[in-house]
Amino acid sequence: MTKHVFVIGLNDLNAERLKRLRGVEDVKFHPLLSPAQVSETQDFDIPAMLAEAVATLDAHDGSIDAIVGYIDFPVSTMLPILCKKYGTPQASLESLLKCEHKYWSRSVMREAIPDHIPKFTAFDPFDETALSKIGEADLRFPFFVKPIKSSGSRLGFRIDSPEDFDFATEKLRAEIRSIGEPFDHVLSQAEMPDDIRAVEGHYCMAEQVIGGRQCTVEGYVHDGDVVPYGTVDSIRYPQVLSFYYYLYPSQLPPKVQEKMWEITRTIMAHIGYDNAGFNIEYYWDEVQDKIWLLEINTRIAQSHCDLFEMVDGVSHQQVTVDLGLGRKPDLPHREGPQNVAAEFFYRVFFRDATIARTPSRAEIEVAAEQVEGTRISSYVSKGMQLSELPEQDAYSFAVASVWMGATKQSKLLWNYEQVMKRLNYEFTDIVE
């Protein structure tokens, strides 16, 4: 019998990836809500989106075998609500929020892995005394601030002075309610301790600055068994917080990766997260030989899909679909055509600008042809403002991504340079 899997925010690219997964010959994939509704905007009306999703599911003539997604907020937080309603496998809302609500997450980490987290405190960015309260929590300059619920690196700032804090809070006050208010709706559906409920959706976190070589451990939990299955390095541009590329497999020492996997098993079991994929971002401080846990994301990293397909033979959406159907993921290992693979981010480091020129589709195709297997996504169009791009960090704008594989890392970097020589973007009205 055909199994019906509903995918929140399904786009054409991922529809093609899903067809290449293992064991999907009897699966029919259905889109649930559009990509524009869930990822191409900064305004999320979660009650309206849930109502539309329920109407679509109720109108479906057939079984509802799985409801899945691989996108951050708001998709990740809607999944437990929908899956509970229709009886399909997914982590509980409370266990998911113990990962996504950054203050609750740090609180449970403090219980299970206290040696691997920084000093932290929550604060209200609309509180004029917030900076002094942060100091009372034993946090000194420099420290990092971010919303208790964010997506990507949006609204994250390094604070080195009171002036930096003033700049960050001005930005936070202007934009944080676009995430905070819909997140409050999700929080209202969950059972939470009183001290956690007091930290509302518009609150922020202040944390001790941590650093080192950054990576992401991808994993899943199936019937209580926590399974890390891959580590991806996150390489930043020099002297800034913006990502340059993601590299798979990780080049970190095996003993460091093994320790990260051990920490991963400990914290995910402690949280009680089950029957869903996740990824955890870590730092390894080489000087102190110390591992820091940065944050937990309750989904596979969509940016890593092509990397796993190139190196292991199939996108790790395999994890999402198999778990959604209640089965143990059938994920291959090192069966792909490449030894290493990466997603590169082509960025511009302006405050804002107008896009005066973008590569044509033909130019993008020619650029991709420079290296077999390369895929390029351009995120901008002529005439738009960089500030219109959703989900950007505070320091740059990613105007394109390039996915490619190679036999070794040095060849990968050389290949990327050859491809980028063929792509021509131009900008006017630049705000430095």
UniProtKB/TrEMBL annotation:
Keywords: ATP-binding, Ligase, Nucleotide-binding. Residues 107-325 form the ATP-grasp domain. The keyword Iron-sulfur does not apply. It comes from the Bacteria. The keyword Transmembrane helix does not apply. PROSITE patterns: ATP_GRASP (PS50975), CPSASE_2 (PS00867). Pfam families: ATP-grasp_4 (PF13535). One of its GO terms (molecular function) is metal ion binding. Gene3D superfamilies: ATP-grasp fold, B domain (3.30.470.20). PANTHER family: ATP-GRASP ENZYME FSQD, FUMIPYRROLE BIOSYNTHESIS PROTEIN C. This is Biotin carboxylase.
